[in-house]
Design a protein that fits this description.
Distance between the termini: 40 Å
Largest sheet: 7 strands, parallel
Strand order of the largest sheet: 3-2-1-4-5-6-11
Number of helices: 9
CATH architecture of the largest domain: 3-Layer(aba) Sandwich
Radius of gyration: 19 Å
Number of strands: 14
Structural class: alpha/beta
């Protein structure tokens, strides 16, 4: 049995579908009622607040779990006392409760962390680099990593940590750069942005799911970057999407100022994950953006 947290999220929902389609027995969980089509036989959904020990105890009763895939998290990048408190509850307390569950059931623990734990350093990020988180979200992810590594060593359960790049793909809700860009361009609306010199690493959703699936069903352990290993500027992404959508004039680079604490380089090496899992990304940025634009245009029709 596999437990998947964050099952209503962009990655989690698709991961549950993938694992169930592969014939695996899955218990999915989220803080809200299940969103989407009914799960197939052998797969179930349990509504739970992972920061509540009673809810986690109820989840435990649906086990035992051979593997826990912990995707659930709250991500807010404007630090305030309120948002930091919520991220501590959702990202740290919840992870602690799940680590205790893994300890009790000797579950393999797979955790989605973030490349943001490296902070504002020169890329490409390597797993051997020191961590230097620049916001509380990244701090909360690093705290989760440390708890997992410590408990895994002390209590003898396997663990796998993915420091993930920026995931994108069809159906992603607006709010992040690429889905907001694609939705605007496909609707024929102007898209104001910065000059776009920031360097990023964009990972297509299907490549991300394939890596997590391999991690869930394999035996690799340790901490790995989950990314493309490619450096792309935000401007290059904007110009590529605008060309695909036939909306070059709608892209307005330089219309917005850079943020005060702009993260300039965010891309990672992937030699370690390729060696450990035999995984490499298969969908290039242009192909991924084409799929997103086609999906957005078909939805508008």
């Amino acid at each position: 049995m596999i437990l998947v947290t964050g099952a209503n999220g962009f990655i989690g929902k698709r991961l549950v579908e993938r694992l169930c389609a592969a014939g695996l027995s899955v218990t999915a969980t989220g803080r809200r009622p299940h969103a989407g089509p009914a799960l197939p036989a052998g797969c179930a959904y349990v509504e739970a607040d992972l920061s509540d020990p009673a809810d986690v105890a109820e989840l435990a009763a649906h086990g035992p779990y051979g593997t826990i895939l912990h995707l659930a998290a709250t991500a807010v990048f404007k630090d305030t006392p309120e948002t930091d408190r919520e991220m501590y509850r959702s990202n740290v307390t919840a992870t602690f409760n799940l680590v205790e569950l893994a300890r009790d059931q000797k579950s393999r623990f797979v955790f989605l962390s973030s490349g943001m734990v490296y902070g504002d350093q020169r890329g490409p990020f390597k797993e051997s680099m020191a961590t230097r988180p620049g916001n509380f979200y990244a701090v909360s992810k690093l705290m989760g990593e440390e708890m997992i590594r410590f408990a895994s060593q002390r209590h003898g359960f396997a663990h796998l940590i993915f420091r993930i790049a920026i995931v994108y793909g069809p159906g992603q809700p607006e709010g992040m750069f690429i889905p907001s860009l694609v939705q605007a361009l496909s609707a024929g609306k102007d898209f104001p942005m910065t000059e776009g010199n920031q360097i990023r690493d964009f990972l297509y959703i299907e490549d991300c799911l394939r890596a997590i699936h391999l991690g869930a069903t394999g035996e690799a352990q340790g901490t790995f970057n989950l990314a493309t290993g490619l450096r792309t500027t935000m401007r290059e992404v904007g110009e590529t999407a605008a060309a695909i959508a036939g909306a070059k004039e709608a892209l307005k680079p330089g219309a917005l100022p850079y943020r005060q604490n702009e993260l300039w380089e965010y891309y990672m090496e992937i030699a370690a994950i390729t060696s450990a899992l035999g995984w490499r990304p298969e969908v290039g940025l242009k192909q991924g953006l084409e799929r997103m634009v086609q999906h957005a245009l078909s939805n508008r029709k």
